[in-house]
Fold this protein.
Amino acid sequence: MATFIDRVTLHAVAGNGGRGVASVHREKFKPLGGPDGGNGGSGGSVILRVDPQMTTLLDYHYSPHRQASNGSPGGGDRKDGASAKDLVLSVPSGTVVVADDGETLADLVAPGEEYVVAKGGKGGLGNAALATRRRKAPGFALLGEPGEEASVVLELKTIADVALVGYPSSGKSSLIAAMSSVRPKIADYPFTTLVPNLGVVSAGKTRFTMADVPGLIPGASEGKGLGLDFLRHIERSGVIVHVIDAAALEADRDPVRDLDTIEEELSKYDAALADGPALSERTRVVVLNKIDDPDGRRIAEMTRGDIEARGLRVFEVSALTHEGLPELGYALAALVEGARTRVAEPPRIVLRPRPVDDSGFTVTKIETPDGPAFQVRGSKPERWVHQTDFTNDEAIGYLAERLALLGVEEELFGAGATPGQTVVIGDRERGVVFDWEPSMVAGAELLGARGTDIRVEEWEGAARASRGERRASHRDRMDAKAAAREELRIEKEAGHWVSSDPQGLDESDGKEGNTT
């Protein structure tokens, strides 16, 4: 049974951040020691790292679900929780990370190169970190952020300079065994090779890698035989070698017809290539194998001219007797050097991830089974919701304050939301749903932050006024009283009201008389 796996689906779950702690310092003779709750530790991330010693994705075929550890919660006395270690998964060089929608996320080639599949959640802040000048003793702490979850497809594309393609039993495995030290399985029946083989060939001062692909047959692009699944291993190859059996026994086969069939299958695969030159446009040579057979040598001599007329170089070789292999090796080395010169560095994928601390958000009106609602999406609002302990009223107030400062309430008003409207922060399945009530400045809000009293602050402000400020305030009050008396006098003369005092006003003390 073949143990080579080149395509798997990986389900990664990062660790959650530890929760912060709400704690108050307690010490003898210090009843109000202040907040001392520590922060929670960050959760571990799931990271892919290139390991040159790995050649297959077999480990993730049998264990596709991987989860990192959670961060530890904080403690009192300002003790922060421990952060969890990242879960590092080793992958072979040439691994491509693809999202569910087909978008390429990363192309891992260099040894030690990494890609974060799922990022661990940050730890929640303790009340010591939440204390401010206005909020001197917070009675709450933040929860840890949940770790990210991601399902990605890992595809292995072997990095080889030369790729061997051809019909089953054309001698590809024998050829790579004769030219390198690799020892693939070789037998006289079709589809002996079930997995790609990779070998290293030395020709003078040049060393290059050669890979053979399991045999192609007509209709492979429709799923016949082994299909085109393994052609991904030659996408990075600069030189393609057509290995043709010159001694084939089938009556409907000859070297030219075999070449046309494989070329047609390669052209059908070109449509699936996202970037890079098409396989049919790369440097190609033709190897007429098995000339140790008299019929094979005769057929090779007869068809060589027809193939060369197409502009392709032709080599007559025998993988059994090694005839023609040295010339083939040096010719391929020269072509590889030329390909390396033309493409000094393979095209790499440019990744533009969105900023982690993006402050933007959107408010959208949606339809639900219960009627219209408004959905808020954004990294900050969704993260704040996950960090809020909804069993603590003070924590809920802190969340409302943060959302208001971010401008969420203004956007809800602008989108047409009214008090009591259903609002969802996050996605519909896992988001937080609540009935929206706009913030109002009344009642408890006038008392100020916890541990303060606005009446005391006003009294202290008045007591700290200078002598000149107090005199100016007294003059303003006297002027206001004089204006009020003048207004009453004018209204009396106009007959708007009658005073029991004959004078209408008690001028002795500056106070108004009784009115009826």
